[in-house]
């Protein structure tokens, strides 16, 4: 599989993950905590799929099957990190909104 296809596979997975994490924050704000948790778990599945694709790229490079650095790869890694940040934030926002709901 060529690098471009691998990168697009990674972008698809982590893009889906990021969307799930963002929607989870929105659901938590509306006090739909169960749905928010489901979205976070779904996001984690997709994030892990994207992370596995990234690990595959790294493994190939370690085996001396080097890929040229490309903007698509840089973009894919940027999307991976963005999704990871939203994963962390979505879990924190869910906890925060749950605590605020109990405090009222």
UniProtKB/TrEMBL annotation:
The keyword Membrane does not apply. The keyword Transport applies. This is PTS lactose/cellobiose transporter subunit IIA. Keywords: Phosphotransferase system, Sugar transport, Transferase, Transport. It comes from Pantoea septica. The modification Phosphohistidine is found at residue 75. It comes from the Bacteria. It holds the Pfam family PTS_IIA. PROSITE patterns: PTS_EIIA_TYPE_3 (PS51095).
């Amino acid at each position: 599989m060529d690098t471009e296809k691998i990168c697009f596979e990674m972008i698809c997975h982590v893009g889906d993950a990021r969307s799930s994490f963002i929607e989870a924050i929105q659901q938590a704000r509306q006090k739909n905590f169960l749905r928010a948790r489901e979205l976070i778990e779904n996001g984690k599945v997709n994030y892990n799929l994207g992370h596995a694709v990234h690990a595959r790229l790294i493994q190939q490079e370690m085996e001396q099957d080097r890929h040229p650095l490309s903007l698509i790869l840089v973009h894919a890694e940027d999307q991976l990190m963005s999704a990871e940040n939203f994963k962390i934030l979505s879990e924190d926002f869910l906890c925060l909104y749950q605590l605020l709901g109990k405090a009222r």
